[in-house]
Amino acid sequence: MSDPEAVTAPRRVGLIGYGLAGSVFHAPLIAATDGLLLDTVSTRSPERQAQARAEHPQVRTVATAEDVLDRAAAGALDLIVVASPNKTHVPLATAALEAGVAVVVDKPLAATAAEAEALAALADHRGLLLSVFQNRRWDNDFRTVRQLVADGALGEVQRFESRFERWRPQPKGGWRESGDPIELGGLLYDLGSHLVDQALTLFGPAISVYAESDIRRPGAEADDDTFFALTHAGGVRSHLWVSATTAQLGPRFRVLGSRAGYVKYGLDPQEAALRAGLRPATEGATWGVEPATSWGRLGAEGDAPAAGTPSPEAGAGQPVPTLPGAYPAYYAAVARALRDGGAPPVSAIEAAATLRVLEAARRSAAEGRAVTP
């Protein structure tokens, strides 16, 4: 007979990396999830080890990823989360799967679709969960777009515009902005992975990719201003921008359909809340909720402007309440999958499809033509 306590005991999680991804996103969300226990954190930095213990007093801190893998091999962990620099994702995920534990990997899963598919095959062979942290599927604005599309509020969607734009004229340096191909730096892979994942989630596979990619800032090494366009198999066109050189920001989303359009400015509030030290468990029902002044608008040219719109540029249409952001839903789904043996919230095969588009975008930008992913 199975041990009831073993069935209901929380899954023990080892977190590799305690930089931005590990400390701001993964650790707080793991800690907020019923059925998961943040057991071990690895970081070489003594300061970050102290930070991890201060923020999560029950946690064990170790210096290296190998220490986490050793605990997994000894049966002391059930899940490893890889939140270390991009170049480490494939080797660490491989080692964790070979150690016999489930794995969550921060995006991008790999450099290429082929690497992602190989990891998926290994996880399948071992009978282990492998998921990719594409948290922006649970952004408040994307959840709202997804509902509007599903409800047919826009009619037949013709064009989907999505932007992650910033005004950062001075490069920050570090591996995220490195020009070394091994580091997988640059905005195309960093933020573009979110935009592509969202577009494919909404409209299915892309059959054509065209991209224009530049390095504009003095001293920058990696792409910092990229536009890319996808043609989906169903006919929708997605126009996507990632940029650190945008002095005037465009809308986060503009979705145009045969019946109406939806325009939404600003960013989901969850990252800012996590950075400020707020936590889903303490914020309760207000987590991920934005004020009505931030809501997007749904309508068409000629519709009456929304009451209280701040400027003529805000346009026509009526405000649409933005659904709450729901980052905690990702790890709740991971916990369910570990408990019940179900599918992960984001699969490695889905990540491979995203990477296939990102690879095609790089190829298109280099060749100056549209390509097939």
Give the SSE map.
Blueprint: H1 4-8, E1 11-16, H2 20-31, E2 36-42, H3 46-55, E3 60-62, H4 65-73, E4 79-82, H5 89-98, E5 102-106, H6 113-126, E6 130-133, H7 140-151, E7 157-165, H8 187-190, H9 192-203, E8 206-214, E9 225-232, E10 237-243, E11 253-257, E12 261-264, H10 270-275, H11 280-283, E13 296-299, E14 318-320, H12 328-340, H13 348-367
Parallel strand pairs: 1-2, 1-4, 2-3, 4-5, 5-6, 7-10
Antiparallel strand pairs: 7-11, 8-9, 9-10, 11-12, 12-13, 13-14
Short account of what is shown:
This protein is an alpha/beta fold and 373 residues long.
What does this structure look like?
The protein folds into two domains: 147 residues, 3-Layer(aba) Sandwich (Rossmann fold), CATH 3.40.50.720; 200 residues, Dihydrodipicolinate Reductase, domain 2 (2-Layer Sandwich), CATH 3.30.360.10. The longest helix is centred in the C-terminal third of the chain and has 20 residues. α5 packs parallel to α6, α6 runs antiparallel to α13 and α9 packs across α13. The chain is α/β, with parallel strands linked by helices and 373 residues long. The mean pLDDT is 95. It is built from 13 helices and 14 strands. It is globular, with a radius of gyration of 21 Å. An eight-stranded mixed beta sheet has the order 8-9-10-7-11-12-13-14. It has a six-stranded parallel beta sheet with strand order 3-2-1-4-5-6, sandwiched between helices.
